[in-house]
């Protein structure tokens, strides 16, 4: 049996108890979580995130780059079209032992620069080998981006894949805790 067949069966079990769509497009916790696409970092498991609680944006390294900013702009546009009254909190979650931490060699600098949306000479300033610094960099980038409304609460976490614990590095007010 293929994995997709197994997944289809799991979906049948899910559908049997599914409560239906919420009445509106806004997540119930008015949160947006930006995290890595690594299979060890599923926010539903790591943070106990429930269906409908938050929008989850996942990419390589969970990095805030132009694609993430465009996605946030698209979400804001949908909210505007639907006349949703939102006060969204944005949470950035990086993790230990991230595959992107291997992009620190000189030969991979062009690829890392493209991923991050920066010049090659700036790659070292983006914490590829330090998830705590990466969180600080990405929270700072979001807080300064003109497409993110001023005053939007932005927090940063680092999930340790070894211990299973998520540590708050930057609070919703942008204060570094570590």
TrEMBL record:
Binds 1 zinc ion per subunit. Coiled coil: none annotated. Zn(2+) binds at residues 36, 38, 95, 98. Its cofactor is Zn(2+). It is an enzyme of class 4 (lyase). Belongs to the beta-class carbonic anhydrase family. This is carbonic anhydrase.
